[in-house]
Amino acid sequence: MAMLEVKDLHVHYGVIEAIKGIDFEVNKGEIIALIGANGAGKTTILHTITGLIQPTKGTIVFEGKDITKTPGYKIVSLGMAHVPEGRRVFAQLSVYENLLMGAYTRKDKEEIENTLRMVYDRFPRLEERKGQMAGTLSGGEQQMLAMGRALMSHPNIILMDEPSMGLSPIFVNEIFDIIQQVSKSGTTVLLVEQNAKKALSIADRAYVLETGKIVLTGNAKELMDNESIKKAYLGE
Amino acid sequence: MSFISYLVTGISLGSVYAIIALGYTMVYGIAKMLNFAHGDVIMIGGYVVFVAVSNLGINPYVAILISMAVCTVLGVVVEKVAYKPLRNASPLAVLITAIGVSYLLQNVALLIFGSDTKAFTSVVTMKNITLFDGQLIIPGVAVVTVLACIVIMIGLSLFIKKTKAGRAMVAVSEDKGAAQLMGINVNGTISLTFAIGSGLAAIAGVLLCSAYPSLTPYTGAMPGIKAFVAAVFGGIGSIPGAMIGGILLGIIENLSKAYISSQMADAIVFAVLIIVLLVRPTGILGKNIQEKV
């Protein structure tokens, strides 16, 4: 059974239908990419899964539990973390305090310490800057902080929204390396990206989204060779 | 000597403004709304103590606790009933609702207690301090007010810095969506903020009525608006700002009364607001954080 199953999802903003009935699934251990142009509805899908937006129709099942109606703040303790678009770190809190916010729902101090150690090992730069206000970090460092903060909840699945947006090419490569490491350490990844080439290069499978509908799906390697994908998204 | 005396009274009055302004600024910081009914919660707090002490003969300190409890519940209920349904409405709708709640509270008090001025018995028992052979008298209520203000300020700062709920407040004030993704119950945090702000309003009400012992349904309105000025003056959303703004405003008001004109004092206070907004729109300690992208 799939770890995350989205069925016939419809989302409206007022009268405008942003998501027009989509189905997709994420299996345990996979890296799944949702790719598509600006405005295709990628972010809306992630926001709906983690309860920031309510769908008008459809179901979202996570690890066998229907979470469609679960209040947003209860999602993270079910084992699902979300790295939002534009990082959205807490600018007035220090790096360390931001990471603690990530573990907000966890109780065991010792386990939180262990996870913090793991996050610092994965992002040594965050440890160097732990006392610094998050708002003063560079874009790439903020992205690392947002990812570290999500990992602090010790999730089974991590949803990442445009992690490469606005970053220099060096940082983009670093971020994608880290996503692969996170995946190898056993966390399932649902990745939303405009940088289709990068996303497809690390994903197992991908879904292509166009104005609220899934138009194409398949193995990431195959999609990379697909002529229409090449033309529309890979700039070849 | 009289200057020092005016200054002390000003600081004391300013401390009351500061405590009220804390409620304004916290609610603004978290819910991004101006709760214009905040001043009237002070008045309700005053009436609860008045009824408890004068009519029911309850110990004044117990009465303060009862008043805080009543105001806390009132604040939370007002938020749930009047403001929560407007969470995604335009700021103007919320503002008008807040003004409506303000008039509602005033008129409910008018219905229950009537329009006559009630003589409030000070709950502060501390004696006046006489210095320099009686040339300078510092009222006991002034000392208690300033001390209360300092204790509240320190307590609140520690609460926000050191506790999980406090950090959750900072997170919600910055980004509700991201806070929710961390597992923070945003509505719960907003309720908690209203609870704390309203509990503080009760204390402010008691201190205000102890210093100026007359109570009417409109007692809270003017201090409420001045505390709002203080919050903007200090930088709305900033807790130390509310403190500094409140105390400065109290001093300005009292010295204006003493040396310029007691009738002009309020005009001067509001002129200060206009000047501050022109020169420094973010207030003294207003947040203007530069973020890298």
Note the overall shape of chain B: globular
| Largest interface, counted by CB within 8 Å of the partner chain's CB | A-B, 34 and 23 residues
* Sheet having the most strands of chain B: 2 strands, antiparallel
The domain tally of chain A reads 1
Which topology of chain B does CATH recognise? ABC transporter involved in vitamin B12 uptake, BtuC
**Radius of gyration of chain B over alpha carbons?**
19 Å
Characterise this structure.
The complex is a heterodimer of chains A (236) and B (293). Chain A has helices at 42-49, 95-102, 109-122, 124-128, 139-151, 169-184, 196-202, 220-225, 227-234, and strands at residues 4-13, 16-26, 31-36, 57-62, 65-66, 80-83, 157-161, 188-193, 205-210, 213-219. By secondary structure, chain A is α/β, with parallel strands linked by helices. Chain A has a six-stranded mixed β-sheet with strand order 6-7-8-3-9-10, with helices on both faces. In chain A, strands 2-1-4-5 form a four-stranded antiparallel β-sheet, covered by helices on one side. The longest helix of chain A has 16 residues, at 169-184. Chain B is mainly alpha-helical. Chain B has one domain (2-279): ABC transporter involved in vitamin B12 uptake, BtuC (Orthogonal Bundle), CATH 1.10.3470. Chain B has eleven helices and four strands, in the order H-H-H-H-E-E-E-H-H-H-H-E-H-H-H. Chain B has helices at 2-31, 38-55, 60-83, 91-113, 140-162, 164-174, 176-181, 186-211, 221-234, 239-259, 265-279; strands at 118-119, 129-131, 136-138, 214-215. The longest helix of chain B has 30 residues, at 2-31. In chain B, 49% of the residues are buried. Mean pLDDT of chain B is 89; it is low at 289-293. At the A-B interface, helix 2 and helix 5 of A face helix 6 and helix 7 of B.
